[in-house]
Inverse folding.
C-alpha cells in the first residue's frame, strides 16, 4: 500500500503539523514515510503545502505531480491542486472561503466544514485535527491508536494535555465529513 | 691574542638566544622589526614555560613563515583569517596559549571582520599586530595604515585621502570592544622600547592564563625596504611620522 | 520500531554530528539549511558532550574556524548553502592543501548569484572539480534520504580522517527540508585530548612537546620542486580514494534496456519514474552515484555495455552528465534532462524526457 497525499492551505492553518502527525502515525504502524513541505517566503503568511507519503515499501520521489488524496483549505490551493488528483482519487476540502468549487467528475469529492466546526468548538487550533478526522474517515489508512501515538510523538510534552481535545476534534471531523 | 675558543665559556656568557627560537636563518630584511618581535615572543614563551601549551597562528604577509622561527606548533592561516583559526583553537583548547601574529594588511584590511569579531567575542587569545604601514611581502604596496602622502608602489604620488580614504587607526577601534582587556601600542626601535614591548607581550600572554579575554599588542614597525630608507633612517622616520598618528602607549588595561 | 524518529534532513545532520562525537560546528545562517545551526543551539551539546557550537560572523570566518579546529586534530564541521559555500571555497582549498580532515555540508539551492532558496543540484562542478584554486579533490557524498543524512556524517568524518582530506556532503533543499523516518546512529563519545594525540599527533597542533618536532598546519611551499612533489602526493591519495571508496546503488538494472544516472533527490524522482515507465513497458533502471568523488565511472562503463541509452537526470543545466559521457565514451547515447533554478522535475517529466531524448531521439 502506498498513499500519496498533499495538504494545501494557508500558513498558520496547521497544514505542516497535520502532515507531521499523519507521517508519525505511519511510523507507528511500521510504514515508510516522507513529509515534504513547500518552504521559503511562502511559509510566512502565504500558502503552505506539504506532501505526505505513507508506504509499505521504500518511498521513491518525495516530489510528485499527482496524488491519491488532495486536501484543499483555500482558494489558491483549489486552483492549483484540483487537477493534481489522480483519476479515481479523492479531494477533500473545506468550503469556507471557496468561491470556485471543484468540478471534476472522475474523482470523489468530500466537504468538511472544519473552520465552522472549529469555531463551534471554540478552539481555532482544532481546525487541522478536524480536517485530519475527515481524511481518516474517507481514507482509513492509519489506525486511531497510531494517530494518538503520532500525536504524542509530534507534540512537545507540555502540550500533551491537549491530546484529548485533538482526539475530540478528529472524531468531529469524522462525523461531519460528507460527500459533495 | 687569545683563541676564540678560550672566550666561549659558560662563565663568560652574558646573552643567549632563547631555545624557543629555531636555528633557521630568518628571511627578514636587515633592520626589519619582525626579527625583534619574534625574539620577544619566543623569550616570553620560554620564560613563562609555556612552549608545550602555545599554538601560534601565522598570517599571510612577511611573517607568513613565522612558523620556521619559533619552535612551537603553528597553524598557517589564509590572508586575514588568523583570528578565526585562533577562535577555534581557543574554544577547543581553552587551556592553551593561542596567539595570532598579523601584519597591517592582514589584520586591518582583508581580515578586518575576523579581528573585530574575535576581539568582540573576547576570545582568550593574544594578538600581535605589526604595523609598518605598507605591504612588505608583495613589494611595498599601500596598506590600510599607510600615512597620508606616503609613497608606495600603489600610491606612487602619495596616499591621497580623497582617493584612498584615511589611514585606518584600528587599534583605537579594537580598544572600544568590551571583549578586549588589554590594548597597547608599542615599538621596538630603541633598547628601552624593546624592553617595554617585551613587558607588554608578557602581560598579554599572562592575561591568557587569567582568562581575561583578548589582549592586543600593536607594534609600530619599520619596513626599510618598502620605505626605501636605511634601517636607522627608518627608525627616525617612524618616530617623526608614524608616532603622531599611531601614538605609543596603553589604550586599555583592565 | 520505537527507535525510529521523524526528522528533517537538516535536523538529522545536527543530531548525527552530536552523536558521532563531533568536536565543533561553526556556521552562519542561510536558507535552506539554517535548521542545522538552530537545532544545534537548541540542543546545547556543549552541556552534554562538550561539543563547541559557534555562529561565526561570516561563512568565511566559519570555514577558517574549521581550519583552526581541524588543525588541532579534532572532528570539526560546517554547513551552508550554495552562496555560502562559494564564500567558503578559499578555506576549503587551504584545508585540502594543508591535508586537514573536516566535514562540510552543502544544502544546495539554485543559482547563480543569490539565485533562489529552492532546491537545486547546480553545485556539482564546484563540488567535484575543485571549487577553489589549485589541484585538489574533496570526498563528496550525495545523500538521497534523511537516513543517509544521518549515516554520511559519520562516514564523512571517517573518510576525512582516513585520508586527511575535507569531505563534503552534497545535499539539497529537498533532502534538507524533507522529514523521513530515521534511525539515528548510536552515541559515540568525543575523542579525548589523549586520543587525539595518539591518533593525529603526528600532524595535529596539540602543543609541541620535547619528544617531537613542531607540527605546522600549512599549505605554503615556496620551493616549486617540493610543491610539485606535494602535488604528486595529493594525486596519489586521490587515486587511492578512486580505487577504494567508490559507492553507488543500482535499482532495477538487471533487465534494463535504458538507464537513468542520478544522485540525491533526483535519484528519488527517477525511482518513481522507473515505476511509471515500467507501467508503460519501458525497461529502465537507475544507477545512483553515492560518492560523486570518487565517481562510479567503472560501474557506468559496465552498464553502457548493456543498455541502449542513458539519461542523466539532474537539477542543473547539465553538469554530472559530463562525467557520465566520459565514462560511456561514446558507446551509447547519453543525454541530460534537468530542471533548474529551484524547479524540481516531476517523475512524469523524466519519463517523457527518456522517451523523447533517448528512445525516440
Amino acid at each position: 500500500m502506498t498513499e500519496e497525499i498533499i495538504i494545501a492551505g494557508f500558513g498558520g492553518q496547521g497544514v505542516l503539523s497535520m502532515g507531521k502527525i499523519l507521517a508519525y502515525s505511519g511510523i507507528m504502524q511500521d510504514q515508510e514515510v516522507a513529509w515534504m513541505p513547500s518552504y521559503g517566503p511562502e511559509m510566512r503568511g502565504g500558502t503552505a503545502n506539504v506532501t505526505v507519503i505513507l508506504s509499505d515499501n521504500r518511498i521513491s520521489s518525495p516530489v510528485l505531480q499527482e496524488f491519491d488524496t488532495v486536501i484543499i483549505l483555500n482558494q489558491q490551493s483549489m486552483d492549483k491542486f484540483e487537477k493534481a488528483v489522480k483519476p479515481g482519487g479523492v479531494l477533500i476540502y473545506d468550503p469556507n472561503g471557496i468561491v470556485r468549487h471543484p468540478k471534476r467528475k472522475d474523482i470523489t469529492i468530500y466537504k468538511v466544514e472544519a473552520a465552522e466546526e472549529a469555531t463551534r468548538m471554540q478552539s481555532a487550533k482544532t481546525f487541522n485535527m478536524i480536517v485530519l478526522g475527515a481524511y481518516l474517515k474517507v481514507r482509513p489508512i492509519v489506525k486511531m491508536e497510531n494517530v494518538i501515538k503520532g500525536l504524542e510523538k509530534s507534540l512537545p510534552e507540555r502540550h500533551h494535555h491537549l491530546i484529548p481535545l485533538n482526539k475530540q476534534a478528529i472524531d468531529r471531523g469524522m462525523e461531519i465529513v460528507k460527500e459533495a | 691574542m687569545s683563541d676564540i675558543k678560550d672566550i666561549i665559556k659558560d662563565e663568560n656568557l652574558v646573552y643567549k638566544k632563547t631555545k624557543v627560537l629555531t636555528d633557521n636563518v630568518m628571511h627578514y630584511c636587515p633592520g626589519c622589526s619582525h626579527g625583534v618581535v619574534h625574539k620577544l615572543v619566543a623569550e616570553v614563551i620560554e620564560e613563562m614555560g609555556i612552549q608545550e601549551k602555545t599554538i601560534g597562528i601565522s598570517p599571510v604577509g612577511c611573517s607568513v613563515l613565522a612558523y620556521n622561527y619559533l619552535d612551537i606548533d603553528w597553524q598557517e592561516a589564509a590572508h586575514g583569517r588568523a583570528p578565526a583559526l585562533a577562535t577555534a583553537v581557543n574554544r577547543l583548547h581553552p587551556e592553551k596559549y593561542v596567539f595570532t601574529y598579523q601584519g597591517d594588511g592582514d589584520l586591518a584590511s582583508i581580515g578586518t571582520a575576523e579581528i573585530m569579531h574575535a576581539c568582540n567575542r573576547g576570545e582568550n587569545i593574544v594578538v600581535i599586530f605589526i604595523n609598518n604601514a605598507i605591504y612588505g611581502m608583495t613589494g611595498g604596496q599601500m596598506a590600510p595604515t599607510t600615512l597620508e602622502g606616503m609613497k608606495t608602489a600603489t600610491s606612487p604620488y602619495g596616499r591621497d585621502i580623497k582617493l584612498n580614504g584615511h589611514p585606518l587607526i584600528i587599534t583605537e577601534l579594537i580598544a572600544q570592544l568590551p571583549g578586549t582587556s588589554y590594548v597597547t601600542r608599542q615599538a621596538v626601535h630603541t633598547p628601552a622600547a624593546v624592553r617595554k614591548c617585551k613587558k607588554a607581550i608578557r602581560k598579554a600572554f599572562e592575561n591568557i592564563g587569567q582568562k581575561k579575554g583578548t589582549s592586543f599588542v600593536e607594534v609600530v614597525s619599520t619596513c626599510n625596504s618598502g620605505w626605501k630608507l636605511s634601517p636607522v633612517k627608518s627608525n627616525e622616520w617612524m618616530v617623526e611620522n608614524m608616532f603622531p598618528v599611531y601614538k605609543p602607549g596603553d589604550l586599555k588595561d583592565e | 520500531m520505537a527507535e525510529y524518529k521523524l526528522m528533517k534532513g537538516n535536523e538529522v545532520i545536527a543530531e548525527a554530528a552530536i552523536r558521532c562525537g563531533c568536536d565543533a560546528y561553526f556556521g552562519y545562517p542561510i536558507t535552506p539549511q539554517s535548521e542545522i545551526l538552530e537545532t544545534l543551539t537548541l540542543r546545547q551539546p556543549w552541556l552534554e558532550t562538550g561539543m563547541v557550537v559557534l555562529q561565526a560572523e561570516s561563512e568565511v570566518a566559519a570555514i577558517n574556524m574549521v581550519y583552526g579546529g581541524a588543525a588541532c586534530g579534532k572532528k570539526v564541521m560546517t554547513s551552508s548553502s550554495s552562496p555560502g559555500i562559494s564564500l567558503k571555497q578559499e578555506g576549503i582549498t587551504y584545508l585540502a592543501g594543508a591535508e586537514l580532515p573536516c566535514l562540510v555540508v552543502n544544502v544546495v539551492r539554485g543559482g547563480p548569484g543569490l539565485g533562489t532558496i529552492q532546491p537545486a543540484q547546480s553545485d556539482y562542478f564546484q563540488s567535484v572539480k575543485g571549487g577553489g584554486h589549485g589541484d585538489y579533490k574533496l570526498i563528496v557524498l550525495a545523500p538521497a534520504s534523511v537516513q543517509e543524512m544521518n549515516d554520511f556524517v559519520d562516514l564523512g568524518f571517517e573518510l576525512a580522517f582516513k585520508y586527511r582530506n575535507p569531505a563534503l556532503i552534497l545535499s539539497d533543499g529537498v533532502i534538507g527540508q524533507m522529514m523521513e523516518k530515521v534511525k539515528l546512529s548510536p552515541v559515540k563519545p568525543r575523542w579525548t585530548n589523549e586520543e587525539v594525540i595518539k591518533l593525529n599527533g603526528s600532524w595535529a597542533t596539540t602543543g609541541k612537546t620535547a619528544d617531537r618536532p613542531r607540527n605546522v598546519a600549512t599549505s605554503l611551499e615556496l620551493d616549486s620542486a617540493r610543491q610539485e612533489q606535494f602535488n604528486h602526493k595529493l594525486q596519489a591519495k586521490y587515486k587511492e580514494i578512486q580505487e577504494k571508496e567508490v559507492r553507488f546503488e543500482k535499482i532495477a538494472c538487471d533487465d534494463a534496456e535504458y538507464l537513468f544516472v542520478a544522485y540525491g533527490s533526483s535519484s528519488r524522482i527517477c525511482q518513481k519514474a522507473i515505476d511509471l515507465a515500467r507501467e508503460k513497458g519501458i525497461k529502465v533502471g537507475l544507477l545512483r552515484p553515492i560518492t560523486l568523488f570518487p565517481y562510479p565511472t567503472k560501474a557506468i562503463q559496465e552498464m553502457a555495455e548493456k543498455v541502449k541509452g542513458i539519461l542523466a537526470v539532474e537539477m542543473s543545466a547539465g553538469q554530472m552528465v559530463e562525467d557520465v559521457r566520459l565514462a560511456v565514451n561514446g558507446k551509447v547515447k547519453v543525454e541530460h534532462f534537468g530542471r533548474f533554478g529551484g524547479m524540481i522535475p516531476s517523475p512524469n517529466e523524466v519519463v517523457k524526457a527518456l522517451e523523447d531524448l533517448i528512445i525516440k531521439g
About this structure: The interface with chain B takes residues 23-24, 26, 52, 54, 56-58, 60-62, 64-69, 71-72, 74, 76, 90-91, 94, 98, 193, 205-210, 214-220 of chain C (CB under 8 Å).
